[in-house]
């Protein structure tokens, strides 16, 4: 699934299916006895469980490579070999999370089975972006012209990367507010230096995880406390945000860095709604692909 | 599920359902497409597999956080955040094992989804106690007045803690026999200093694991061999036990410490029956909760 | 399942069922609500996923001990105790991978539940041998008199061990070509010192993984590069192989040691077909056992 080539109409088809699933909550199982491979060459919990939930609701048996994958990799098997081998067992989908260095789109061309990107290094995380957009549309309606602000480690965020790909299709306005070291290489973005001004501008504030674990040693030129002071969300700062604006975070959250725990109690916060919607959007995507409608 | 507030009648409802499942062995599946989250923040094998078996028999898809949970926790996510996130994916149950320091009952009040304690530090392990009681009732009938002897690391045993909570409801007599360091803080218990006298008294001898892995260094003031000599079960000692008394252990067993392997061959031993019954009791509990009868 | 006592006719029954599954690709689910235990005390990815796929297609819920098994083993539980405990939860099958030192056939006699060997030290890996034979028969028809050449670490290969057991039943001819350190203790085998001569002889060349991870330190008296030079398959060497001969490998492959990546593109190569057939053969075996026909 390549977001850049996903037309607006198809996104709305997914969302309309997701909305249907969400209202009924009660989907018929159609694909019992079939499988879906969830191959996480990089760690994941929520994305894996979200796809797994969607799978069970469709009757698909999840084949999991997670900790397990290590065993083959330890025996010297490449990621490509691992995926080709699992593909030879004919699951209906290959859901893959891997690092930047692996040529995921090259591999997708070699195999017949639909390959779904579940987080590819810093390149993208399309289903996360889709569920975010779905969550925004639920509260804000048509997103055309809406102002989306990213606060956090935008340069290292595959979620942000996928959102930037969708901006042209959805005709949203995008801005960022972050330390210079976190700025992405993307000239189309509006840049705010002051968080309060940025919050006053935004219809949605998407906070992003400070991925300290991805930073090279020596890279940390500012501390978590500096970050919190200048870019962390708290009740005081949220007074600048419109009454109908949304607060989001793709998780996992560093409490007391990107945001204070009190922020999660704010009525504008959609963090857990994002998680719930993730299942609906993924289930809708899988179902439409299984039915040949996507 | 709080054992202290679980009335005698409800316990018998669970057991009667479990007995029905056990006799038919052949339960209809009713909840296909739904999920159950098994969140083991502390290691488990048998409890996890027991719940998983019960889940599959009901058609519930198990969502497992086990080794996997580490990935999010490594990213700095708290146990509470992990559980809230999984809850947002709307499983039918949250089955949780965690340490004492986590406020499991506090969390249970915050979420709508039934939260089942699958081992909470040394505080309790209610489904294990229920399956033990079910196993006792199968052989001994009504337990009122029956004498249950605990031998082993009672102070560090969440299984014992749950049994002590049930004693008032079931009107059982409880005694302990163990090194002073393993004595619990519970004044209602009869204490035996001599194992042979204790065995002669008991209708059930529940041996408990010496959880050496939970002991602080420096705490081991006696060796495994000392323990075996004074408190370990073997064929000679079992001659003191009534012909119709039961030998139990919640596992995993330290062979040659709590008991010699020969003990498992004794006709009074119910160790593997406990494991079998664990599935029936858990399946019964889940089914009754799903049907709104518990 | 003991290959030495598996009659030719039963092997063909399995294969005929596997062929039926492969042509329809669309098997009805019959055993929903039942479980299959996959107990991997040694690491596996492809065998585990292959059995798991077969399980889902039959409606069996897979109970996995993998990384998870460590938790009980860390608590000091023996492999035998682990298996007996899982058996007490009444799965329909116990699929076990373990080391040589564990007495798997001794245990099989103690339990009522069918125990399937999924890789037992260097002793055998029967379902791998069956899927290999199935793959050979698909291309070559009746194997009686056919020439099967093993190249690689034959002494440490449980796959080869299982094939040698089947040779008498199938009336195949077996030869080996490998460094002297890799020669098995089996006098019936034809030995080739020169790989080109061996390839000219063979109807099937079964390359085997150099299990460097199993070798004791000090054992490596030749390097991976020496091995590649003398025993590695590449396009030049494959010119010696008959046009209708088959190239196989049970995986995982050490690229550039047992074979060059180019070999996988050769039209005689059946490596991924082996993986696909593994699911069919295992599904057929499980189904026939469930139906009491095996």
CATH topology descriptor of the largest domain in chain A: Rossmann fold
User: What CATH architecture of the largest domain in chain A do you see?
Assistant: 3-Layer(aba) Sandwich
Number of domains of chain A: 2
Mean pLDDT of chain A: 91
Rg of chain A (C-alpha, Å): 19 Å
Q: Sheet bearing the most strands of chain A, described?
A: 5 strands, parallel
| Number of H- or I-type helical stretches of chain A | 11
3D shape of chain A: globular
The percent of residues in helical segments of chain A reads 40-55%
CATH class placement of the largest domain in chain A? Alpha Beta
H-E order of chain A = HEHEHHEHEHEHEEHEHHEH
- CATH H-level superfamily of the largest domain in chain A: Aspartate/ornithine carbamoyltransferase
- Largest interface, Cβ cutoff 8 Å: A-B, 35 and 28 residues
Cross-sheet strand order for the largest sheet of chain A: 7-6-5-8-9
Strand % of chain A is 5-15%
